[in-house]
Structure formats: C-alpha cells, structure tokens
Amino acid sequence: MKYLPTLALFGLIIGLASCSQDTTCTCEIAGETTTSTCEGCTGDDLEAFEAACTASDAVAQIAGGSCSID
Description:
By secondary structure, the chain is an alpha+beta fold. It has helices at residues 4-17, 43-62; strands spanning 21-29, 32-41, 66-69. It has a 3-stranded antiparallel sheet with strand order 2-1-3, with helices on one face.
C-alpha cells in the first residue's frame, strides 16, 4: 500500500507523455510569417517534426529570420 501513490504518479506521468498533441512551427523571414502544424503528433512523428523545424531555423537564420516550436 505504501507504494500506491508513487505508482499512481508514475502512471499519470506516463499517460500524459503519451498523449497526442498539436505542435506548431512558426517561421519568420523578411517580415513573412509561415506556420506549420503537426496535428496529433506523437513519438517519432513529433521528433521528426521538431527536427524539421530546427533545420528550418538554421536555414532561416542565414536569411536573417528564425523558426521556433510553439
């Protein structure tokens, strides 16, 4: 019984981490703003979307802009 609260908290954390989420990547270059959305992304899809946004940020910085995950 003394481990029940710890197990419940661990289960809650795992449950929240596995929820799908909508993630956006907003890029601004030369006054133009573009937003990409990954709806319901989880796991590998979310990681790939974030990596693509990071790569876009590197390219945008060359042109004097930036991209960020919102």
